[in-house]
Specification:
The complex is a heterodimer. By secondary structure, chain A is α/β, with parallel strands linked by helices. Helix content of chain A is 52%, strand content 11%. Chain B starts with a helix and ends with a strand. The chains are: A alpha/beta, B alpha/beta.
């Protein structure tokens, strides 16, 4: 584990109020999901999960085909598709577009893909103002933080924090009532929506047969972002493709329920581009920016490819005992929780945060609630192996390797193993029930660290091997 | 060209050649249980009311108009160009504007009006959803900018649910730029998970069945 990761976790451990807040909030989301997927509420839940998994698998196995079909559909509808390998290319495209349109103000609805490439910072450096419009995102943009949770970005803040923030950043009189705070945000952002030159959204799904961007939300900010400004740009990863609009019957039933327990969220927008003949509103120009950003690298691994099935519902975060304890900001990249623990090493390399795949109890709750059945624990194990291999290549883990080589040797030599057992029993003799601390000389370095977190049952008076020999002797 | 580079990256990763055939997909999974109209109306009412929306079954087009007039109480409203609204007499109510032809005019009116009145193309009973399809009659902003949205729908347009909608509209945005599913009022829980309605979209929604 890196010192930074360790430090962040210690910081959260020292804040019981924050821990209680995250524990309660994720607990409520767990309850909502549980009630939404009961046998009575959604009898074909398991069948839908299986179908969603199958559809994502098929789409990614033939992704080049569906990307081409999607691009052709968008162009047929009068929009344009821009393929980008990197975040730089996305920023270059948006800068060029803003120059051509004479744009200064951009409104944004939630897009994790844009968080991945630090799009807001890149745009600011080019003198463009990009305003987040989801209430939670609006708040964390003002605090300069990353979203704390994939569906509840400001989960870690209280109404008092928001009151401080609004007074400081928006210059409004102090307001502690949540309803009134929400109305302040409505007023401030409504102005922005009506003035904005360009609206930038993410995409929950990209539909190949329709050339459509699908957006799922509760506030209406995504509708405003994509309908009020004269230009709509959707920025999304290439893995968001699904083959057909009719497949939404599977995905939409799972997404809202898994995220917040809603059968459908307040708004689901299926958007295919610029306003058509006779339509009086909606954007004049429509662009879909498709980001590779390392995704094609993940595709190459047939097993770990399933990490890209994720539909960003956040259920694995809510159900993860580690996320619930250490919170969203302890994680080293934009994606937190179990899904973050498998995406981050694959996007950023295994040594970006070597402790990450190990920060799991492998309890399997994440895989159990995943609406697209990603086998997160299995991928975590593979990534642990990759971290160790990478560390070994980098010259680390010599002591650990030596220890395991000795262990392997002892395990394959019965006499040595038995001698070890006798010695250990002698060294630990007199300890009652549990060994809480290793004796004398052995209690140092990595062994001490290991034992500090664990209690080992004290050795039995008689070893199994002894007992077995006696038992055989007795019978003979 | 970035397009060729990205597609090249994807093909290399998958070991596929350009234009290589695609394995067949299973048929779309749409399950539609035939439900009588009375049952659909009952389910729709329960669902939309649970979300905090209002449901009104009008006895006649005139009754629908009366319900709308009572809600407006003389306040300004933007009505869409849908013929049904005119047939009910809603567009003839005082302070209700309709017959839009100019985009800037429509936008300005929607930004100011406390009420937006639309004709819903469909509704989904099981989730309490109102479906908007954009056209030369229906626009995006009247159901979005005003704080209160009144949607009028002919009763036979109430479908059982999402599967039936997608069976009827397999390519929902082929001839129009948007299909929007509106399920209850605009809401947020982003501050301390306290539910607040009407954050960006309308905090109030009424479905009026004729």
């Amino acid at each position: 584990m890196s010192a930074i990761f360790d430090e962040k976790i210690r910081k959260v451990a020292a804040e019981p109020a924050l821990q209680r807040k995250v524990y309660a909030a994720t607990g409520r989301l767990m309850d909502h999901r549980r009630q939404a997927v009961t046998e009575a509420a959604l009898p074909d839940y398991q069948e839908l999960r299986a179908r969603a998994h199958e559809l994502k698998k098929h789409t990614l196995e033939h992704l080049d085909h569906y990307l081409e079909q999607f691009a052709a559909s968008v162009e047929r509808n009068g929009g344009q598709v821009i393929f980008c390998e990197t975040g730089d290319e996305v920023a270059d495209f948006l800068t060029g577009l803003s120059e051509r349109r004479g744009a200064r103000l951009l409104v944004k609805s939630k897009s994790m893909t844009s968080e991945e490439i630090d799009l807001n910072e890149r745009l600011e450096r080019r003198q463009l103002e990009a305003v987040e419009t989801d209430l939670g995102e609006f708040i964390v943009q003002m605090t300069g933080e990353r979203p704390y949770h994939i569906v509840a970005p400001a989960m870690h803040l209280s109404r008092h924090d928001v009151a401080d923030l609004f007074t400081a950043k928006l210059g409004v009189p102090r307001e502690e009532v949540i309803e009134a705070q929400t109305m302040i945000a409505r007023r401030v952002l409504r102005e922005k929506f009506l003035q904005a030159d360009i609206g930038i959204s993410g995409a929950n799904f990209l539909v190949a047969d329709s050339g459509a961007v699908v957006l799922v939300e509760n506030e209406g900010n995504a509708r405003l972002t994509t309908s009020a400004p004269p230009v709509h740009v959707a920025v999304a990863g290439i893995e968001k493709l699904i083959p057909r609009a009719q497949d939404l019957a599977v995905f939409l039933k799972l997404l809202g329920r898994s995220a917040t327990g809603q059968a459908l969220t307040s708004y689901t927008s299926i958007l295919s581009g610029p306003r058509r003949e006779g339509e009086l509103d909606g954007p004049e120009e429509f662009y879909v920016v498709l980001l590779d950003g390392g995704r094609s690298k993940l595709l190459a691994d047939a097993e770990k490819r399933q990490s890209l099935y994720c539909i960003r519902c956040g259920a694995c975060l809510n159900h993860c005992p580690v996320y619930r304890k250490i919170g969203g900001h302890s994680f080293p990249w934009v994606y937190s929780g179990p899904i973050g623990a498998i995406l981050t090493p694959q996007f950023q390399g295994p040594l970006h945060e070597p402790g990450l795949p190990f920060a799991s109890s492998l309890c399997g709750a994440c895989a159990e609630v995943c609406p697209v059945k990603i086998d997160i624990p299995k991928i975590l194990l593979e990534l642990r192996a990759e971290v160790k291999e990478a560390e070994t290549r980098a010259g680390a883990n010599r002591l650990e390797r030596l220890a395991f080589q000795m262990w392997a040797w002892a395990m394959t030599h019965p006499a040595v193993y038995e001698l070890g057992g006798v010695l250990a029993a002698a060294a630990l003799a007199g300890q009652e029930e549990y060994v809480r601390e290793l004796p004398g000389l052995v209690n140092a370095g990595p062994a001490k660290a290991w034992a500090s977190q664990r209690d080992v049952p004290a050795p039995a008076a008689q070893s199994f091997r002894d007992w077995w020999r006696q038992r055989r002797g007795g019978r003979a | 060209m970035s397009r060729e580079r990205v597609l090249g990256n994807v093909r290399r990763a998958l070991g596929r050649a350009p234009g290589q055939a695609v394995a067949p997909l299973p048929e779309p999974r749409l399950r539609i249980a035939p439900t009588p109209l009375g049952e659909r109306l009952r389910v729709m009412r329960t669902a939309i009311e649970r979300l905090g929306g209002k449901f009104y079954e009008a006895a006649s087009p005139q009754d629908a108009c009366r319900y709308v007039a009572e809600r407006l109480a003389g306040a300004e409203a933007v009505a869409s160009n849908a013929p049904l609204l005119a047939e009910c007499g809603i567009t003839a109510l005082p302070n209700v504007r309709a017959g839009w032809t100019d985009p800037a005019d429509l936008r300005e009116a929607c930004a100011r009006a406390p009420f937006g009145i639309t004709c819903a193309d469909f509704a989904l009973a099981d989730t309490g959803t109102v479906v908007l399809l954009t056209s030369r009659e229906e626009f995006r902003l009247p159901s979005l900018l005003p704080p209160c949205h009144l949607a009028v729908i002919p009763r036979e347009r109430i479908l059982s649910g999402l599967d039936e909608l997608l069976a009827r509209e397999p390519l929902p945005v082929e001839s129009r730029s948007a299909m929007v599913l509106i399920t209850g009022p605009s809401r947020t829980g982003d501050i301390e998970q306290i539910l607040v309605r009407g954050v960006h979209g309308p905090g109030e929604i009424h479905l009026i069945v004729v």
